[in-house]
Amino acid sequence: MPEQPAGVAAMPGREAMHSPSLWRDAGLRLARNRLAMIGLIVLAFMVVLALLTPWIAPYSYEAQDLELGPVAPAPAHWLGTDIFGRDLLTRILYGSRVSLAVGFLATAVALTIGVLWGACAGYIGGGADAVMMRIVDILYALPFTIFIILLMVVFGQNILLLFFAIGAVEWLTMARIVRGQVLSVRHQEYIEAAVTMGLSRWQIIRRHVIPNVLGPVIVYTTLTIPNVILLESFLSFLGLGVQPPASSWGVLIAYGVETMEEYPWLLFFPAATLSLALFSLNFLGDGLRDALDPRASKD
Amino acid sequence: MFEFVLKRVLQAIPVLWIVITVAFLFVHAAPGGPFSQERAVPPEVLKALNERYKLDQPLLIQYSDYLRNLARGDLGPSFKYPGRTVSEIILAGMPVTFELGFYALLVALAVGIGAGILAATRPNTMRDYLPMSLAMVGICLPTYVLGPLLVLFFGIRLEWLPVSGWGYLPGDKILPSMTLGLAYAAYVARLCRGGMLEILSQDFIRTARAKGLPETTVIYKHALRGGLQPVVSFLGPALAGLLGGSFVIETLFQIPGLGRYYVQAAFNRDYTLVLGTTIFFSTLILVFNLLADIATVWLNPRLRQEDGARA
């Protein structure tokens, strides 16, 4: 294999994706970023807890203890209980399942639509590109938060609908990023070389375009998840998202606000959980950006 | 420039039409009419109500009626506040929401630009890290978390400020405006820092410094105009976001503004009010985005030609 000029991110050939340079380099850079690693660990911890919730939750999700009522954090109830005597830790754990699921699934929806749309627009180019990006421009101008609220009002607070509604909002930026990246890769000389060598379109896309586009996509995906989680908890806070008895971080925060004077822990712990998740995701996203896309990193 | 403005305005019109049409269709596709409640309404009454509100007409006629009335500024009667029209409710809530948004924007810009300049003029020192860490905190603390925390601390613990209302007690506007503004101050600070850093590394800044201009002149007269560009482009989306934030703030602080009406209308399934406010908000956001676009181009003459070339 001929030597690669320095600075060329993706190399021709299947080995490129597994070659030590790009991905291992990025991995090393990420591992050196302490904040990002803390974020990753916290996040992994949260996901594992959320997945294991049905087995590790100390109390049953709906178990009320009206005689007990709201108690402050104590050994029996680590994070205290709410006015119905329900264990707050259990409720936060179940809430995490919903909030994280919305975060990941809605982002997955956005990722799928955005990447396909952007890649097609960028690769086909010409009139199709113009039309497709015009559609993105128009959609950008729409006030989506309001439309999601309208959707939730009209079709009922259905959690599946929430995934799709949020996903349908968040794909636009993804499409723009992917298209820009595809366009810039398309006109590189090594693509011309690949065409001259008689590689098929699909081979070129798989070996050159996808590896190049992957970095920014991973970065943006990580930064989309916190936005989605915020949007979900915003809706749930207003009472327009996840409906009781199901809970999410937003629902718990809304409950906490109602009684924050008497029982501040009911606000504090859900709020802290949400903020911790957002911190972790943002730090991880920033770290990934620095690692995968050194040019775009801060100064 | 005039051409550019005209083009943008003409582009906004079909978008607005799409918004109105889609919102109208959504609301009319809703399962159950506006009068279906827990307590069943007698069929005769339901029929009379449907006739009165013309809900028995074909959809196309309702749609054209709605558009015609909309053009005259008439958004129809509210279903849940009898005797009040949607336009009246919007007009009543609008000044409050605008005032809240205005103060919040002031807070966001003052705090955000200040912090951004502070950070950008001494990058990678404590003067950079501290404001930027605070900005990260601001981004990770949504308004519905920050608001209650501020209320708990300044309103309830210290008893410095009133915790609810708008214009009833002296100082009751401070907490809501701060809460709403600080969240955006964080974004503004990051954008301002990025923009300033980019500009400060350019040749004309070096020239200005080489000429011996004082550093304050370099920063405030030369760098700021370009450095603020990302902030200006962010203003359109930010104002849209402020509007969304006002739903939370007005609910939280019991402020009788449009956002609170909207959320309550959503709860009550007051379809005409939801539809009317949706259209109103959408128009506002489109106008804001338009103004932000125009301001961006006005600040950066190079973009004018670029846009002309694209057209």
Give a written overview of the molecule.
The complex is a heterodimer of chains A (299) and B (311). Chain A is mainly alpha-helical. Chain A has eleven helices and no strands. Chain A has helices spanning 15-18, 20-32, 34-56, 88-124, 126-141, 144-155, 159-186, 189-196, 201-238, 249-258, 265-292. Chain B is mainly alpha-helical and 311 residues long. Chain B has a domain at 89-267 and 288-310: MetI-like fold (Orthogonal Bundle), CATH 1.10.3720.10. Chain B has helices at 2-29, 43-52, 59-71, 86-121, 126-140, 143-157, 174-200, 203-210, 215-227, 229-252, 258-268, 271-299, 301-310. In chain B, helix 7 (174-200) packs antiparallel against helix 10 (229-252) and helix 8 (203-210) packs antiparallel against helix 9. The longest helix of chain B has 36 residues, at 86-121. Chain B is flat, with a radius of gyration of 24 Å. The two termini of chain B are 13 Å apart. The relative contact order of chain B is 0.14. The model of chain B is unreliable at 306-311 (pLDDT under 50). Classes of the chains: A mainly alpha (299), B mainly alpha (311). The interface between A and B is large, with 40 and 48 residues.
Quick synopsis:
The complex is a heterodimer of chains A (about 300) and B (about 300). With about 300 residues, chain A is mainly alpha-helical. Helices cover about 75% and strands about 0% of the residues of chain A.
List the helices and strands and how they pair.
The complex is a heterodimer of chains A (299) and B (311).
Chain A: H1 15-18, H2 20-32, H3 34-56, H4 88-124, H5 126-141, H6 144-155, H7 159-186, H8 189-196, H9 201-238, H10 249-258, H11 265-292
Chain B: H1 2-29, H2 43-52, H3 59-71, H4 86-121, H5 126-140, H6 143-157, H7 174-200, H8 203-210, H9 215-227, H10 229-252, H11 258-268, H12 271-299, H13 301-310
